[in-house]
Design a protein that fits this description.
alpha/beta, seven-stranded mixed beta sheet, six-stranded mixed beta sheet, 38% helix, globular, binds nicotinamide-adenine-dinucleotide
């Protein structure tokens, strides 16, 4: 199985190679097979990409927003047409089941359509100043850098590129070194859609390449999707050079299930909140706070349905869960499962490595549920980023809200209840940027997405993202004489 691209980087509308860079082996996590060999960007590649972006951006920003949008909407059509090919590429790169990844190009397309359309009516204000007047202009920032995580590579690349380009910026994107392939495919699609050369560049590399991009003098903004420690480092570098930032970071989000919840829906929510993408979702609701009143029916159904999850060959359309991304992450998740056992949580199901014929080297972990956890356990406090759900009990609303908020993270939260007043009251108290009532992990492009506290700064999706990829210019227009005291 090979997925070798024409070259490692995509700069100024063409593939570019520089084999003096550190090697990047792209591994299919289901089998351990090397599917592509790439090179991390050298300083020369970083420089070429940023300069190409800088050179192209000025003319692009002069186009009418509707003209820029038209190109993005064309890219959306191609993303939809090629969903089968792109979905397969995403499965090879991430190991995620093809039944999931086939939907990812459509999510990327949604971003192109939304921002490609919304930008035409995203303008400044007119301000009456009593005779004179003022107005504000929304202007692009210039060269923007995007740095991606490995769980949803094409979605992350699209969610950064679409608002940035729509707003008149140029983008240099560095995918995760674990999943470098689909960002290149997206860059090709942009070129085919008519995007002028230099506006969408992809450079490969490890953290040092991300850092070189984030600290480059010509870069106006850095948007990172990754872990909290990475977010801290990049924010520090960007702050020292007064750059704009967006940080989409990690979480340990709560799902609160009250005793009046529809049990089947609440279990569906908890399963989606923990096992989609093999548990590798930033907004996952990994702390499930369960009201004591429905403990038994909920846990019984949860365990039965978890045991039925089909784990195996990611390219089989019936498979629901594939392997984890790499050996390090696999071991980390197994270590947390061992910690959960040692800490005294009750292992309801999973916890092991499934034996799958033909996938001896695959990085699989069974979907795992711990119950009877307490707030101080590490499995209830630290982001595991794998298929491990931790269930905690509660009795009172005030108490569960306090416990749910007792974390440095604040990415997401969910509430399951039939009591509407309670649902809104509790959501208003939860310290999280993205919340759900009676569902989980729905992230339509129309709603802003991002975190409170250490889970992030800024927002992706919706008009909020256009704000974060633009700056506001205020203009005062004098219609009379200059009022001068001199
Ligand atoms: P990571 O932080 O290890 O890496 C993310 C990206 O940052 C990679 O491209 C990496 O090469 C780059 N990087 C690493 N060090 C850097 C540095 N010093 N300077 C610049 N760039 C650097 O994260 P990961 O392991 O790829 O992804 C998992 C994490 O991402 C989890 O914590 C998860 O919650 C988070 N995540 C957040 C969101 C969100 O939208 N909030 C979405 C997906 C994943």
């Amino acid at each position: 199985m090979k997925a070798q691209p024409a070259a490692s980087h995509y700069i100024n509308g063409a593939y570019v190679e520089d084999d003096r860079g550190r090697s990047i082996e792209v591994i299919y996590p289901a089998t351990g097979e090397i599917i592509a060999n790439l090179y991390s960007a050298t300083p020369n590649i970083v420089e070429r990409a940023v300069r190409a972006a800088g050179d192209a951006q000025y003319k692009w920003a002069k186009l009418k927003p509707v003209e820029r949008g038209r190109i993005l909407r064309r890219a959306a059509d191609t993303l939809r047409e090629r969903h089968a090919q792109l979905g397969r590429l995403e499965t090879l790169d991430t190991g995620r089941a093809i039944q999931e990844t086939l939907g990812d190009p459509a999510v990327a397309a949604n971003a192109m359509e939304f921002f490609g359309s919304a930008v035409a009516s995203f303008y400044g204000d007119y301000v009456d100043l009593g005779g004179s007047f003022g107005y504000s202009r929304r202007e692009p920032l210039g060269v923007c850098v995007g740095i991606g995580a490995w769980n949803f590579p094409i979605q992350i690349a699209a969610m950064k590129a679409a608002p940035a380009l729509a707003m008149g910026n140029a983008m240099v994107f560095k995918p995760s070194e674990n999943t470098p392939l689909s960002a290149l495919a997206l860059a090709e699609i942009f070129t085919e859609a008519g995007l002028p050369d230099g506006l969408s560049n992809v450079v490969q590399g490890y953290g040092d390449v991300g850092e070189a991009l984030a600290s480059h003098e010509m870069v106006a903004k850095v948007s990172v999707t990754g872990s909290v420690p990475t977010g801290r480092k990049v924010s520090g570098v960007a702050a020292s050079k007064l750059k704009h930032i967006t940080m989409e970071l990690g979480g340990k989000s709560p799902v609160i299930v009250f005793d009046d919840a529809d049990v089947e829906n609440a279990v569906s929510g908890a399963l989606t909140a923990n096992f989609y993408a093999n548990g590798q979702v930033c907004s996952n609701g990994t702390r499930v706070f369960l009201h004591e009143g429905i403990r038994e029916p909920f846990l019984e159904q949860l365990t039965a349905r978890t045991k039925k999850i089909r784990i195996g060959d990611p390219l089989d359309p019936d498979t629901q869960m594939g392997p984890l991304i790499n050996k390090g992450q696999h071991q980390r998740v197994l270590d947390y499962i061992a910690i959960g056992r040692t800490e005294g949580a009750t292992l309801l199901c999973g916890g092991g490595i499934p034996r799958l014929q033909g996938f001896d080297c695959g990085l699989f972990v069974e979907p795992t549920v711990f119950a009877d956890a307490t707030d101080s356990m590490r499995i209830a406090r630290e982001e595991i980023f794998g298929p491990v759900m931790t269930v905690l009990s509660f009795r009172h609303e005030d108490d569960v809200v306090r416990r749910a908020n007792d974390t440095q993270f604040g990415l997401a939260a969910g509430v399951f209840t039939r009591d509407l007043s309670r649902a809104h009251r509790v959501i208003a108290e939860l310290q999280a940027g993205t919340c759900w009532i009676n569902t989980y992990n729905r992230t339509p492009i129309e709603l802003p997405f991002g975190g409170y506290k250490h889970s992030g700064i800024g927002r992706e999706n919706a008009l909020a993202a256009l704000s974060h990829y633009s700056q506001l210019k205020s203009v005062y227009v004098e219609t009379g004489d200059v009022a001068s005291p001199y």
